[in-house]
Amino acid sequence: MSTNIKNTSDIQLLATYGTLRDDDNSGAAWTNDFVKDISGAVTGKLVGYRLFGHSVINYPFAIYTG
Q1: Where are the alpha helices (DSSP H) in 1-66?
Q2: Which of 16, 26, 44, 53 could tie 20 with a disulfide, CB 3.0–4.6 Å?
Q3: How far apart are CA 53 and CA 45, in angstroms?
């Protein structure tokens, strides 16, 4: 997470997966900081995207597929 953000915005919805989810139990160092003060987390579906992974980059990513 970047702490150098100069502009703030009122985020209405944010889709996350993996270690950024509030129910992640992987023990990743950043999970607790990311989900701190999150309220109203719900399960949902992000239509038009697919999750992929690659052994070289070692983390999942989403690509818009329409």
Answers
A1: 31-35
A2: 16
A3: 18
Enter the pTM of the model: 0.47
Q: Rounded to the nearest 10 degrees, how much is the dihedral formed by the CA atoms of 59, 54, 4, 49?
A: -90
Q: Could you read off the pLDDT of 26-44 as tens digits, one per residue?
A: 888 888 888 888 876 777 7
Say how far apart CA 54 and CA 63 lie, in whole Å. 13
Domain around 2:
1-66
Q: pLDDT for 40-65, tens place per residue?
A: 677 777 889 888 888 888 777 888 99
Domain count within the chain: 1
Looking at the DSSP bridge assignments, the partners of residue 62 are 51
